[in-house]
Amino acid sequence: MAGVKGSAFIERSMLSVLLFLKESIFAEEYALKKGFLQAIDPRIKLASFLLLLCAAIATTDVIFLAGMYGLCLCLAVSSGIELLAFLKRTCLFVPLFSVCIVFPALFGTFSPGEPVLAFGVFVITRQGLMSVTLLLGRIIVSVSLAALLNMTTRHTVLLRVLRIVKIPQIFVLTLGMCYRYIFLFVEIIENTYLAIKSRIGSPIHYRRGQRIVGVSIANLCQRSFELNQQVYSAMLSRGYRGEPRQLDEYRVRPVDWVWACCAACVCALAVYVTILRR
Amino acid sequence: MNAKEVIFETRDLHYAYLGKFPALCGVDMRIRQGEKIAIIGANGSGKSSLLKILDGLIFPDRGDIFAFGTRLHEDVFCDEDFSQAFRSRVGFVFQDPDVQLFCPTVREDIAFGPLQLGVAPDEIKRRIGELVRDFGIEELLDRSPYQLSVGEKRKVAIASTLAVAPRVLILDEPTAGLDPATMRHIVDIITKAHEEGKTVVTATHDMHIVQEIADTIYCFGHDKKIARYGPAQEILEDRQFLEAHNLVHTHRHRHPDSVHTHPHDHAEHHH
Fold first, then answer.
1. Mean pLDDT, to the nearest integer, of B51-58?
2. Which of A26, A245, A249 is facing B116, going by the closest CB pair?
3. pTM of the full structure
4. Which of A165, B18, B121, B178 is the most exposed place for a label (fewest CB within 10 A)?
């Protein structure tokens, strides 16, 4: 019975991984919507989000960070993202894990200073409280910005605009191909699993299950190797000679420049406020 | 016809897959400009290997292949000018569209070939616009190839090859596994390409489309040599020959009011 349970564990794990891959990598529900961020030129969007990230990292003002988070929420709403989905994605897991990590910094042992609250020998200091709030604020704002960029830009587009941060063409092309073929392999894994299930028909011992998974992985590796050779032939056949060229068809409109200026202003303001506080 | 330029000529071609599984055992053929050729043969008879040799993707173990008067071998493709000229003139549609569609979006896939060959961006956009209109795939342009059906993938694969504007179009089983309507569309695309002056070489075992896509047939035998070549009509009428090479089959089947026996060109072609 334990063996059968083990087998169900392997099955559940495999299906969950496949589901996660499909949902997280291929879901483009928000990116295909018509909204403010979706309409911004992706190169400008990437550059402006990098600037906003810099602002979030540079500032030491919690109120400024709160303002930035408010901006993120406004951007989410104006881009057609459901607020609840956005909050779940940005405020639940990552900050929760961060709290666990920064928790000791609340106390006077690690952050000496003015006591605010005491639990016996454990004293929470104002300095500790401020540094934890600042760190958590930065994390939430950074995660929100990354989530906004990710949710409102198609992954394929995001890969292409990586070139503006001087990532080599070959790297971008390879990433794009990885993205393209992950789905093919996910399908192969799913079909292989169904084929095995249809032939076995009953729960199997986990040891046998492990063996089957091992064989499937080996089979997949072999297939990916063959596919790799064939894809290379297909590239050669269409004139590829080691230096890929890609179509650049984005056009920057005035509204994109306005948005870029706003992001630059936020970044400059963050630096200014930080300097002013010193 | 004889005055036309010879595009491909093969002499006693031998090729073994992985160096030990014979795929071609002495193939001789000559393809001229503007011809419509079908290469037919049972599964594993060597059709795909021959097409890859014609496209300069693999090279024979023995024998010679000439394209546009130049003998093809690995070294000749090191010459960038020759390689670029050859790739601009010869387009190859792979049997498995998943192999050919390696870019993240359909638009990038169609643009890939002309971009590598140095075609100007405006011209590439013009070609993309024209091809997607002709193929009826406008709405697929920004989709990823994994989101397409087999028929759509096949159309995009042909469009991505035609985007190079090749003089010669080589297709490896372009209609395999397609529904009748899509198959019809692909046949129309091939016919149109030929009408535009392209030389078309198609490997297939869908015998019912051969008459439309070919004037001349090269038929592979079980010995991985060309068993026979000649006018399409003549070979297609020789049922005994086609049956001996696994290209048609005869069986009994039932209609609502009768049962009869006659040859069939392919699995779906029952009447």
1. 95
2. A245
3. 0.75
4. B18
